[in-house]
Design goal:
Blueprint: H1 2-8, H2 44-50, E1 77-78, E2 81-82, H3 102-106, H4 119-122, H5 126-141, H6 188-197
Antiparallel strand pairs: 1-2
Length: 218
């Protein structure tokens, strides 16, 4: 019965045979430029591979459909294995993101604005983009990379108040600034309406020049 169950299991569910230590897949050799990654960008191997173009020039990510994805992948390693079409940095084992590798970092900075290119333009994964942003900021702090400082020309105009275009401050008006600031007599109909509504709470008006009117408690 157990044999029949094993035969009916699909191929993807069966355990693949384990290889012994002598049959394991050979790992790629380490990069000779790991300690000094900037030397790779000056080698003949780099010129033969990329020429004068940046490392991300001409890169196109494989995707389904005609509309490309709006975000790059998080990382080019899935369960310890490299994806089929890695990003421009992950596909070359000789490229290492380091704040001292100025020529590589300069390829990911806009020469006009000094802003780091968006990963959707360069095609790098988000993991490498974070490392690039951190290395660029560190290189700028160490003075290895240029900083984009906007040029503000000094205005040549005369801003003093001694030229003829500037006169004396006019004096303040003696009356109100605006006509609706003055006190206006409300209409008689509105006064009569208020008196009718609050007649139980109003005090009796005293005649001009006479004694004050008694209050309700007196």
């Amino acid at each position: 019965m157990a044999l029949l169950r094993a035969l009916w299991r699909p191929l993807w569910a069966r355990n693949p045979p384990r290889l012994c230590s002598t049959q394991e897949a050979a790992k790629p050799p380490p990069s000779p430029y790991e300690e000094r990654p900037w030397e790779y960008l000056e080698s003949e191997e780099y010129r033969a591979t990329y020429g004068d173009q940046p490392v991300w020039f001409g890169y196109r990510r494989n995707h389904k459909g005609a509309i490309p994805p709006q975000r790059t992948r998080k990382a080019c390693l899935r369960k310890g294995r490299r994806v089929g079409n890695p990003c421009p940095i992950c596909r070359d084992r000789n490229l290492h993101v380091d704040y001292r590798n100025v020529k590589l970092l300069d390829q990911f900075i806009c020469p006009h604005s000094g802003i780091v290119f968006h990963p959707t333009r360069t095609g790098v994964c988000m993991k490498q983009h974070k490392l690039l942003s951190k290395a660029i900021a560190q290189a700028q702090d160490h003075g290895l990379l240029w900083l984009q400082v906007p040029f503000v020309p000094t205005p040549q105009g005369d801003f003093s108040n001694r030229h003829p275009a500037v006169g004396r401050t006019p004096p303040a008006p003696t009356g109100p600034w605006y006509p609706w600031y003055e006190w206006q007599q409300p209409p008689a109909a509105a006064i009569a309406r208020i008196r009718r509504i609050y007649r139980d709470y109003l005090k009796a008006e005293a005649a001009p020049g006479g004694p004050p009117a008694p209050t309700a408690g007196q």
